[in-house]
Amino acid sequence: MAARAYWKGQIRLALVSIPVEIFSATKSGAAIAFNQIHEPTGKRIKYEKVVPGVGPVDPEDIVKGFQYEKGSYVLVNDEELEAVKLESKKTLELTQFVDYDEVDVLYYEKPYYVVPADDLAEEAFIVLREALRRTRKVGVGQLALRGREYLVSLKPCGRGLVLETLRYADEVNKARDYFRDISDAKPDEDLLDLAETLIERKTADFDASKFHDRYIEAVQDLIERKRKGATIHPEEEEAPAKGTNVIDLMAALKRSIEKPGAAPASEDKKAPAKKAAAKGAAKAPAKKVPAKAAPAKAAPARKRA
Predict the structure, then answer these.
(1) Residue 164: count of CB within 10 angstroms of its CB
(2) d(CA 151, CA 12)
(3) Which of 105, 175, 181, 294 could tie 289 with a disulfide, CB 3.0–4.6 Å?
(4) Contact in structure between 111 and 163 (CB atoms under 8 Å)
């Protein structure tokens, strides 16, 4: 069965209109759904829609209402909402173009695939796609989807285009409110070299299929064990130790490079490491890891746009 288009309309660029269809690019992953149960009887709790003084009501009698003051509502039906005139309900007009990496990742919300609606639209569709690709630009416009108007971006994706809904400025918290207490201190160069080496060691092509939801799997295992009558004994997780010493960080980074994934040393083993590291630091700067044990120093990280 062919996927159903999420939206049908046209992309407009000046005097050029391109009929397109939009499809959701994502789907819901595995999820565990729990019901609320009345423990003494083991029966499921159900909910009814009721009106005070009236009791349960039929779904056919329920309409939308906007409360403009306490206890007073303006009633609106679906036909009236559908009749609201908004050009972006059928047309996505590209009103601006920005550099490919100019839109902060915080604004991106949900992706959709965009394809030409028919063979006649394909030529103009391909021209727009390749023009965006060559200029490394992203088209920006607004589009009405199911009850609200979204800010959206449009960019090439393989043979097609990807439309992504964006958050408006007032929907994104200002980063400075959270980062202002972080100091402007420059990191120690030796520590930075070790961190870069570790990053280089773990660098690989991204493959989403290698990752899976371990929490869902663990909950499914828990449910299966309880279903078979197993007694569960919850274990308290030990809080990870917080490192505050630069020498500890140096030792931890070195151990990470020598034995990737190794468990942290116990507290009684840390003391000699601290002492040795401190002694070495007093005589001379920490030595870099030999070429045999680690790859060449990685290039400095690029600055964010």
Answers:
(1) 19
(2) 15
(3) 294
(4) yes
Q: Residue type for 248, please?
A: D
pLDDT at 72: 93
- What pLDDT, on a 0 to 100 scale, did the predictor assign at position 290? 46
Domain map of the chain by residue range? Answer: 7-26+89-171
Sign of the torsion angle spanned by Cα atoms 121, 124, 126, 132? negative
Strands 7-13 and 16-24: antiparallel
Whether 20 contacts 121, CB under 8 Å = yes
Point out the residues of the chain with pLDDT beneath 70. Answer: 1-2, 236-247, 259-305
Q: Determine whether 130 is exposed, middle or buried from the number of CB atoms within 10 Å of its CB (0-12, 13-18, 19+).
A: exposed
Residue 146 CB burial class (10 angstroms; 0-12, 13-18, ≥19) = exposed
Dig out the tokens for 209 from the structure: 């299929």
pLDDT value for 152 = 96
Contacts 24+ apart (CB under 8 A), 155-162: 155/100, 156/129, 156/130, 156/132, 157/113, 159/129, 160/113, 160/114, 160/115, 160/129, 161/20, 161/113, 161/114, 161/115, 161/125, 161/128, 161/129, 161/132, 162/25, 162/111, 162/112, 162/113, 162/114
Architecture of domain 7-26+89-171: Beta Barrel (2.40)
**CA pair distance 224, 232, nearest whole angstrom:** 11
